[in-house]
Design brief:
single chain; Beta-Lactamase; 52% helix; phosphoprotein; 535 residues; Heat Shock Protein 90; alpha+beta; EC 2.7.13.3; five-stranded antiparallel β-sheet; 14 helices
């Protein structure tokens, strides 16, 4: 009787453990299926983003540019998305571009043609997408002993018009990724599938392995893993207590069974919730990555445009300034200036202002793109202050504003980029002149602070800046909004460029101002950049 009771309890626990293991394995099968569908969906989104782009049409189809391709759909894509190769197929079905990951072994000869031949159904599916909105399609294919995941999308302009909207065979962009250990390792960690691995052939390596079908619906292999078996672990933990306690567990058998069933139900619900959350996370990740790629392309395009247009403007402006300077210098002593000479002075001053603005924009675009390089050396800031005063003396005289310079004494040298230091001093002093009324003054001072650092400051008794405008005055293309400043020149780049150049030197820039009383602006360099000048 006792043995029968123990046997009943043992069988009950064994059955419950088996049911738990089956539930866990079924959940892991759903996760494995979700993993394979997720990588297909992500690849389809990636290739669609690059195919539906005017730059791709121009640089792969219209006027092939190998440098652009390498930097956008070549090694850059391999490093970003861990793909193996990129192909572009022309409207006639011929390969017009092929690149493989230089960090992997070179593919065998004829690899590109073999891939195109194997992916014909996928290519035709991509070409069948709407002409104004291509859709990425993805699927698996087997080439000899290698299984590949491929995604395709028709290469289409972002805003197709005219002939681009009429039925025609479009070129197709292909991303290819080998199902190797690296890819499967990432999926194993991402979806919680221990030992996630790939098995070629048409026979399942284990009862729970999931088949993977190619784009024609044929099985090309299986994904297998080592599922958790919490039921076996539970049975191992309670087998010996069951054998020892015997009669005691007979009475508790029913209760244990109920708990096991409840645990089974909870585990099933958790697996389903995890599966749903994984699906949502995968979609969100793909969308965020796509948005980030578009933002990076937009930033590179903006910086390239600013640099290009600035260079194009500088050459004619330099010529205008030179010729207008010649016309100004034709004034003869003792004779009044002619109207043409007055016009020449206006042209010269306006062109000089525009050239300064172009130079500021060019410097700003270099800094934003990481192309601005500091050439640091020991700079005599006192001398720079006096040079800038001489440069702006004519402007100050024209405005009726007095420039005061306090940069005498034994000032130490500053370890910095001389061009940047002069730009900082010019921008600060120019701002003071622009925003100070006739009869006012602007003072430029260079001093050493209590910590041994160097401070460059400009103080004026001009219109001042309201507290509200001070919150945004350091931003690019921002100027104070009050009646005293409404008639002042300026693009709003001066102070922004001062702060950016200061930050490149590890310095701090600050401002104090009171509306109607004047403004104090300073840049403070750390003591590690200061040393005494040796005669």
């Amino acid at each position: 009787m006792l043995l029968a009771a123990v046997a009943v309890v043992g069988v009950t626990v064994w059955l419950a453990a088996g049911e738990i293991d089956r539930t866990v394995i079924a959940g892991s099968q759903r996760l494995a299926d979700s993993a394979m569908r997720t990588v297909q969906r992500e690849m389809a989104l990636w290739v669609k983003d690059y195919a539906f782009w005017g730059a791709t049409v121009q640089n792969l189809v219209v006027a092939p540019d190998p440098d652009w391709a390498a930097g956008n759909v070549g090694q850059y894509v391999f490093d970003t998305f861990n793909t193996t190769a990129t192909l572009a197929v022309g409207a006639d079905g011929q390969v017009i571009y092929f690149a493989s990951d230089a960090k992997r072994p070179a593919p065998p000869e004829g690899f590109a043609d073999d891939v195109v031949a194997a992916l014909q159904p996928l290519i035709e599916g991509a070409r069948a997408a709407p002409y104004d909105e291509p859709v990425g399609v993805a699927g698996f294919v087997r080439l000899g002993p290698v299984a590949l995941l491929a995604a395709a999308a028709a290469i289409t302009p972002e805003r197709p018009t005219g002939a681009a909207l009429r039925p025609h065979a479009r070129p197709v962009l292909l991303f290819v990724r080998e199902l190797d250990a690296t890819m499967l390792g990432v999926l194993a960690e991402r979806f919680g599938l221990p030992g996630f691995r790939w098995a070629l052939g048409d026979r399942a390596p284990s009862p729970h392995a999931c088949p993977v079908r190619d784009i024609r619906g044929e099985v090309v292999g299986f994904v297998d893993w080592t599922p958790d078996t919490p039921g076996d672990a539970m049975a191992a933990r309670i087998t010996w207590p069951l054998a020892a306690l015997g009669l005691m567990l007979t009475g508790l058998g029913a209760l244990a069974l109920r708990r096991v069933v409840k645990a089974n139900h909870d585990l099933h619900e958790q697996a389903r919730a995890l599966h749903d959350a994984n699906e949502q996370l995968s979609e969100n990740t793909a969308r965020v990555r796509s948005a980030l790629q578009r933002a990076e392309h937009a930033t590179r395009a903006k910086s390239s445009f600013l640099a290009g247009i600035s260079h194009e403007l500088r050459t004619p402006l330099t010529a205008i300034i030179g010729f207008s300077q010649i016309l100004k210098l034709q004034h003869r002593p003792g004779k009044g200036r002619s109207r043409e000479q007055e016009y020449a002075e206006i042209i010269h001053d306006s062109s000089q202002h525009l050239l300064n603005l172009v130079n500021d924009i060019l410097d700003l675009s270099k800094i934003e793109s990481g192309g601005y390089e500091l050439e640091e050396s020991w700079v005599d800031v006192g001398r720079e202050a006096r040079v800038v005063r001489s440069l702006l003396a004519h402007d100050a005289e024209r405005r009726g504003v007095e420039i005061l310079v306090d940069a005498t004494g034994d000032l130490p040298a500053l370890y910095a980029d001389a061009k940047s230091v002069r730009q900082i001093v010019i921008n600060l002093l120019s701002n003071g002149l622009k925003f100070t009324q006739r009869g006012g003054w602007v003072r430029l001072a260079v001093r050493v602070d209590a910590e041994g650092g160097m401070v460059i400051e400009v103080v004026d008794n001009g219109a001042g800046i309201s507290p509200e405008d001070q919150k945004h005055i350091w931003e690019a293309f921002t100027r104070a909004r009050n009646p005293g400043l409404a008639k002042a020149e300026g693009s709003g780049l001066g102070l922004h460029l001062v702060r950016v150049l200061a930050q490149l030197h590890g310095a701090q820039a600050g401002l104090e101002s009171e509306l109607g009383q004047g403004t104090r602006v300073w840049v403070a360099f750390g003591p590690e950049r200061v040393r005494a000048i040796v005669a």
